[in-house]
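Supplementary notes for students who missed Thursday's class. We covered one full example, reproduced here. Read the sequence, then the structure, then the short commentary at the end.
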Amino acid sequence: MLVLHEASRRASVTLDTELDATEFLARANAVLREELRADLSAEAQKWFLAAFARDARNVEALVGVACTCQYFVSNPWWGDPRATAAAADVGREAVAIALELEPGNARAKYIQGMLYSAAGQLEEAASAFRQALAMNEALPSAHAFGGYNAALLGRAWETSQAVERATHLNPTHASGGHHPRDSILFFFGGFAQLLLGRKDEAVTLLQKSLERNPTYGSAQLFLIAALSLTARHEEAALVAQSFRQQYLQSPAYAFEQFWLSRSASAAYRAEVYPLFDSIRGFGAG
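Structure (token representation):
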């Protein structure tokens, strides 16, 4: 809690002191609608923290802080392990406070689920996603992340159906358009197909993910594996080179820890370990 207040204080003093919490939130949400990137996530977090500094009981600010923390936790190549651990701690605290203030907040509940999942608390995450959907069945992200979490539990066959529901509920899909953040849905689908051994389907979905967001590290990593397993080695090498150029400072073990250590499921481990053998073969893991 002290860390959260100190971070919000620092954010507040570096920003326009004439703005109120509502204006800070508007700026944060505008940034969040853009591409999923480290710099944009950090900028949005700064605005959310400043809003929290203005109003420590503002649930939207707390949920926004937790959401941006989750982005850093789920993208370990964005920072060093200590920064990722700090983001996890602050995110869990922020979302817990938000749920104390507003127990029925479905968005807060599914963000809590995502933080549980990233920490390897997969059953707790599954419970949080179910609770979020009981509060609001029309939340695309709760469906999508619930499906992804199922894959980590060794039930990858559930992921595609969950992603399909999320896609149909996605406002961007409903309007016939595309958004950079749609890349997450394609990644989840491609990841699950790869775990199930459907390599060609995985390549298609992971490439679609990168069409929406070319810097999405998760999609790049597993596309390397998918291309390698379909004997498209030159293409895999190019993706690996692009990944290394973007994330030069990232410790190699961070990626494996994020996908290998977080699940005790024997089925999942049997599916994912061979993928990292392929990724390591191209020097990206």
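Commentary. The chain has a mean pLDDT of 87. The radius of gyration is 19 Å. If anything here is unclear, bring it to office hours.
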